[in-house]
Amino acid sequence: MTSLSQAQAQKLALFSQQLPNGIAKGNSYDKTLATFEQLGYVQIDTISVVQRAHHHTLWARNPSYQPKHLDQLVADKQVFEYWSHAAAYLPMSNYRHSLPRKAAIKSGQQRHWYCKDRELMKNVFARIEAEGPLMAKDFESKANKTQGWGSKPAKVALENLYMQGDLMIAERQGFHKVYDVTARVLPDNIDTSMPSREEHAEHLVMNYLKAHGFGSLPEMIYQLKDVKSDVVNALENLASNKQVELIEVNGETYYATSQALNLLDKRLNRKQAKILSPFDNLLIQRKRASAVFDFDYLIECYVPQAKRQFGYFCLPILWDGKLVARADCKVNKHSSTLEVLHLVTEPSIKRSDAFSSALEKELQAFAKFNQCVQFAILKRSENTAK
Q1: Containing domain of residue 301, as a range?
Q2: Which of 60, 95, 148, 310 has a CA positioned 20 to 30 A from the CA of residue 116?
Q3: Same domain, yes or no, for 20 and 90?
Q4: Does residue 217 fall inside a structural domain?
């Protein structure tokens, strides 16, 4: 069994996540698509104190990224919306691996949040089929009863049809979903065959290892239902075929591919700082971020204000191959300023001048990405929790 130091494990994880080096070749559009193919998904989130998470995650790997590139990828049928561990954009090349979840939801094997009004769903689908793409607001409802987060019945019907695969998101207007019949959203050449359980499980393993370099069983099946036994079997088969191998990091056992281990021979850019989204693929699994990077992270927007330690929307900061700080950021539209309400550094930073210089360059770039002309750090401190 290959044993990796923690520094090697960090390097492997970062290269697999295209951080901080990014995709090297192609124009900005091509780099964005390549990022999707590498990561497997990009999580969507609604919080907008800075640029939304899906745009931020793509920009972190492609500094020339612009939000219009994502819209174009959707329009070109290269990327689609569905569910990963959460709402996400996924590469269209992986479309058929969204089918098992859709089939399970449609059959009732898995439940979504909403109860199904099948008659209303039938009517909503028929209208979209006849009229073309529609938004929830295009359906008038006299009913006052709501479900879930105050959702009106037609919206619930749309979401159920979307989750079970009858509808897809053709585009977004503002942040509002535009639904259309699946057959009209998919490209003509897409494979729509249902993968076998064995094939799907192998995809889950290899897709995860491609994006993260190495991983454990719990990480590979994070927030996924009814796949554990299949993934266990897939790991056994892949290991016996020498497509994956066991490695050890800090006494813990993980799986990796030999191709991923070859990344350790490459040189990591340690001089560049990267400001990451709280929903970035690198650290969305907080236990993994703690184990690999020794970085305990909690997004505090869901924590009562009086109990927050670092701030409402603290963004993790990568530098020197490590997670070394967090910045509670907010765009001040009136002054066109990216405000760093609180910058908190880890005591592990050894070359503070080099870090400060790298962070200043990154904050300038992040301010521009957020359509600000300047940034301002309003408060600084060191994390003394450890």
Answers
A1: 295-382
A2: 95
A3: yes
A4: yes
2 and 79 within one domain: yes
Per-residue pLDDT of the chain (386 residues; tens, 9 = 90+): 899 999 999 999 999 999 998 887 889 999 999 999 999 999 999 999 999 999 999 999 999 999 999 999 999 999 999 999 999 999 999 999 999 999 999 999 988 777 899 999 999 999 999 999 999 999 965 554 544 434 589 999 999 999 999 999 999 998 899 999 999 999 999 999 999 999 999 999 999 999 999 999 999 999 999 999 999 999 999 999 999 999 999 999 999 998 899 999 999 999 999 999 999 999 999 999 999 999 999 999 999 999 999 999 999 999 999 999 999 999 999 999 999 999 999 998 988 999 999 999 999 999 999 999 999 999 999 998 75
- Number of domains making up the chain: 2
Does some domain include residue 316?
yes
Same structural domain, 29 and 71: yes
